[in-house]
Amino acid sequence: MEQPCRTPRSAPRRSHSYNPIRALLMAVRTCRVRHCNEPASSQFSPHCRRHKSTLRRHGDPEQRGVTLTELKPFLARVRARIAKNDDSPLWPHLENLWRDIVSDARQEVTRPVGNRYQRSAANELLNVDADSSPMEIIVTTLAMHVFWHDRPSRFRSDSAFWLQLARRVRALTSRHCGLRYDHETGRDKRIYREMTPKAGAIIGQKLSSTFGAVGFQFAALDNREKEEADKAKDAITNAIRELR
Fold this sequence. Notes:
- By secondary structure, the protein is mostly helical.
- The chain is built from 8 helices and 2 strands.
- α3 (68-84) packs across α6.
């Protein structure tokens, strides 16, 4: 005799009380940056608003901008090296390389169809060239590479350095600045047009690939001279100690 088919009884469900605190913690994402507990700017962003803005402006959420005051010692070192080799044929060659970059930028902006970030980078380069001398641009680029060589931990990544390099070179012109009337104070307020991260990376990579090797050579020469000076001091110190 056939037994009737019985449906297995499902396990009883456990009743969980709704925990609003746990639901809130699961719904709110926090910033990915270490020691930052701020909520993410959106459900798709890994960073809070502050670090998201820093990533866009500086190339890394933890990167600090390079100021002119911070760069001044390296600018002085580069200018001293150039003055020491005033008759070197290297400087006209570097100026010609910059003119090649400007020529490529002019071709980019005249193309009827092209990449918008490439076009934006080309316009930024043309603005810098219009307000600055080639040697001033080259000196700033070389100083940034000497800075990178001596203090690599100051830059969080290669992309962060490229963007800082582009920002320092871009600061040689004021064409990205403007004035806006502030009704509360009754005065004009200076405002700045931000450069897109992709355009800044294009500028930084282009400058670094063109002039970076020269900047690193400057840093190596400075280090060699410092070592020679230290050896001379040590020799004098040892000679003094050996006096009878």
